[in-house]
Amino acid sequence: MRSGLGLRLSRRTRSRAAALLVPLVMVAAGCRHRGAAWADPAGPVPGAAGVEIIVIGQARESRQTRQVAHALEVVLADAAAAGRTPIVAWLGTDLGRPGPDRAAPCPAPGAAHAGPVLTELARVIRSSGAGIWGLPGPDGWRCGTTGFEARATPLPYAQPGVAYVVRVSEAGEAALVSSCDLDACTIAPPADDTLIELVALDFSFWHYPALAGEDLSAAVLAQQAALLDALAAQPARPRVLLSPIPVESAGAHGVGGRLQRAGYRYLPKFVQEALADGLFVGVVGALERNLQVSEDLSNAIYRSARTFVAKPIFEVVSGSAGGAKPTPRTSRGDTLLPDLESEHVGFARVIVADERVYLRVHARVAGRWRVAGIELPLVPAPLPNLREPPTIQPCHSCDPTRGAADGDVDIPRGPRPR
Q1: Which residues of 200-224 are buried (b: 16+ CB within 10 A; e: fewer)?
Q2: Under a CB-based contact definition with an 8 Å cutoff, are residues 238 and 380 in contact?
């Protein structure tokens, strides 16, 4: 027979265990979906000319990627009807069920993108006439689809290497204008009708050193540095950095997160200098299994590396084309507070037209697609030399300048939509 003291102790132990379990249940109760722009549906982009960059990251053989493919059919048709040139940026493929942070058996290189879902995704894009440019990402390096292998690996996207430049004219014509060898990179002479330049750089081997040997890593780094040097020598143009690894992140890979790898402080030195000097007006990344939009990374970069950048830099993180993965609040990066965020399946669009940038985020929430938008100038004004530094620790339960009107919102998972 149990004593009264033992009964009291067991009850006390159970109550303490319950108190510890409640926060965990609350963390796992739903997915983050925050940002004031979600409250009002994004309207059509004014004007007809321009280019539309559709960003898909971490696509894989999954039901979610098939949903993205179906949604892209509508988006690509709308872009064509509006007279915009669509370009798809394919930033990494998830080739293993656990994702890029845990090793999983790789498919044969020739079959990496041959599954029915990825084949359908590529077919949808090609049938619209859109160009597809891509980078391998962490799993591409791990599974031998980088293009450095001796055997030819069929890819659903064009990949001239892991350092290249695509120039888009005002008429919407996209062309590869860079050429790199082991020692140097050259870029075609500047054109007066350039609308924007897309600079594709894959730093997966840098963030995940085990993915490449020292000799290959050194050669690729030298090539990427030479490409940025060649860009810096040309007249200033609006340029967007495309990379499977974001510069900053509020997800698990961000600075302070459980899997921290993505941060200005972790980039190669020459990339840090290019960002600080204002070579890029924006950054587009993936890796995280969520959607994020930040109007300006300058505060996050200051928190991450105590560095002031010359100009505002917007960032789009679109890594949930293969499925979303909610991150517990205790595991998130703590230097960035995005203006838009969603832990749901989706993709993002960067539309450049009439000296403006229109950012659109598509998230599938409770079985329906929702779209939020933010508008920014294509060429932002330089930041003042003398400015007040931001708080080092952002308030993740507070509203940023144009953030969530009602703070954080957790969407209950509920039954899966049919």
Answers
A1: bbbbbbbbbeebbeeeeeeebbbbb
A2: no
Q: Which two tokens stand for residue 274?
A: 């290019």
Look at residues 313, 314, 366 and name the one whose alpha carbon lies nearest to residue 343: 366
Q: Which two tokens stand for residue 393?
A: 């620790």
For 15, the token pair is 């109550």
Cα angle for residues 265, 180, 357 (degrees, 5° grid): 55
Which of 23, 37, 29, 1 shows the shortest CA–CA distance to 375? Answer: 37
Work out the angle at residue 204's Cα, subtended by the Cα atoms of residues 203 and 206, and round it to the nearest 5 degrees.
65
Give, rounded to a whole angstrom, the gap between the first and last alpha carbons of the chain: 53
pTM across the whole model: 0.86
SS3 284: strand
Chain mean pLDDT for the chain: 84
Please give the distance of CA 373 from its chain centroid, rounded to a whole number. Answer: 16
Cβ atoms of residues 240 and 280 within 8 Å: yes
Q: How confident is the model at residue 201 (pLDDT cuts 50, 70, 90)?
A: very high
Other beta carbons within 10 angstroms of residue 386's beta carbon come to 5
306 strand-pairing partners: none
Residue where the block lists tokens 């791990």: 142
Contact 164, 178 (CB under 8 A): yes
Torsion of CA 13, 17, 22, 24, to 10 degrees: 170
- DSSP helix/strand/coil, 197: strand
Secondary-structure percent of the chain, ordered helix, strand, coil, rounded to 5: 30, 25, 45
Residues 154, 144: contact at Cβ < 8 Å? Answer: no
